[in-house]
TrEMBL record:
Recorded family membership: Belongs to the binding-protein-dependent transport system permease family.
One Pfam assignment: BPD_transp_1_N
Naturally occurring in which organism (per UniProt): Erwinia sorbitola
Matching CDD domains: TM_PBP2 (cd06261)
GO molecular function: dipeptide transmembrane transporter activity
Protein name: ABC transporter permease subunit
Any Gene Ontology CC annotation: plasma membrane
Primary site of residence: membrane
Cellular compartment(s): Cell inner membrane; Cell membrane
Length: 351
């Protein structure tokens, strides 16, 4: 009886501990999202651009100015304006873009798939080569392979993305003609493709036109490599450090004493124990690619959220800027929350 009561008490304590951890994580996520909303709202009020003048014009009369200001709700107290801002967000209303004269939400739905496609392909490129370089570097620390991996990682951090993109266009597009150049498709196909998913690779494949599909790849590979070098550098550097730190632990020394090979220890013992770090690094890299694609999309004329935000900045389109900021920030928070959940589920040490 005493053993059963003790077991039941332990199970109850474990349940409440896990429930408390889940509630704490959920509360942290809600607070972070609320902070992001407060930031975007404050950004709109701190902007030097007057939204009333953008609508009414610089030569509007005082009565017209006051009427437009009242219609926008800017004559109300700031807390009430924030409440109305939340109400509009719940309904999916992010305002009207002064550039396209379309709802910002519609513009983001149209441009976000292009950013997802570019960032996902770059993430796959960076993850495959980044993990491979980190494993090679940790296999023989201080060797030529290790020095090459560290040099590539340093270059990925040091070289500006926009400069690398311009250099890539000059070499592979203008000189060697290996790339199809800026944009997602040539003009001959861009207006004939039926946008089913918004992802050009998938849509061109579904269309059955293999020439269009090859053209999409020809446009995609260069910005993917340029953007993927950034994630590859991050993954190589952080994963290499985690592998080398894990290599100094006692179970690795014991495996070596039993005669296990260096490659077997690295792949079967060390690498599985850094999966929590790997998940976190991959999540942070992917989130960085989503928010860091602004310069890459601008250089390659890639019609994604980054280019949309850049155009909005030059045109002082406040609703478009705030909507883009909110979207990318929300994605960053969601990806980090997903990484924490995956780390908790796959790594028993985090429990």
């Amino acid at each position: 009886m005493a053993v059963a009561e003790h077991s039941a008490g332990s199970s109850a304590r474990l349940f409440w501990r896990r429930s408390g951890g889940a509630l704490s994580a959920l509360l942290s996520l809600v607070v972070t999202l609320l902070g992001l909303l407060v930031f975007t709202f404050a950004l709109s009020h701190l902007s030097p651009v007057d939204p009333v003048l953008q609508i009414a014009g610089d030569h509007a009369s005082e009565s017209t100015y006051a009427q437009v200001r009242a219609s926008l709700g800017l004559d109300q107290p700031v807390p009430l304006q924030f409440w109305h801002y939340l109400e509009h967000l719940v309904r999916g209303d992010l305002g009207i873009s002064s550039i396209t004269n379309q709802p910002v939400a519609s513009d983001l739905l149209r441009t976000f798939p292009a950013t997802i496609e570019l960032a996902t392909c770059a993430m796959i490129f960076g993850a495959v080569f980044g993990i491979l370089l980190a494993l090679l570097a940790a296999w023989k620390p201080g060797s030529v392979l290790d020095n090459v991996a560290r040099m590539i990682s340093l270059l990925g951090y040091s070289v500006p993305v926009f400069w690398l993109g311009l250099l890539g266009l000059l070499l592979f597009y203008a000189v060697l003609h290996w790339s199809a150049g800026p944009g997602r498709l040539d003009d001959i196909w861009i207006y004939t493709l039926e946008p089913k998913t918004g992802l050009v690779l998938i849509d061109s494949w579904l269309s059955g036109d293999m020439e269009m599909f090859r053209n999409a790849i020809a446009h995609l590979w260069l910005p993917v490599v340029v953007l993927g070098l950034l994630s590859m550098a991050t993954i190589t550097r952080l994963l290499r450090a985690a592998l080398l730190e894990e290599s100094s632990k006692e179970y690795v020394t014991l495996a070596r004493a039993k005669g296990a090979s260096r490659g077997r220890i690295l792949l079967l013992h060390i690498f599985p124990n850094v999966r929590g770090t790997l998940i976190t690094v991959l999540a942070l890299s992917y989130a960085t690619l989503l928010e860091g694609s602004v310069l890459t999309e601008t250089v390659f004329a890639w019609p994604g959220v980054g280019r949309y935000m850049t155009t909005a900045l030059f045109a002082s389109d406040t609703p478009a800027i705030l909507g883009s900021t909110l979207l990318i920030g929300g994605c960053f928070i969601a990806i980090n929350a997903l990484a924490d959940a995956l780390t908790y589920l796959t790594d028993p040490r985090t429990r």
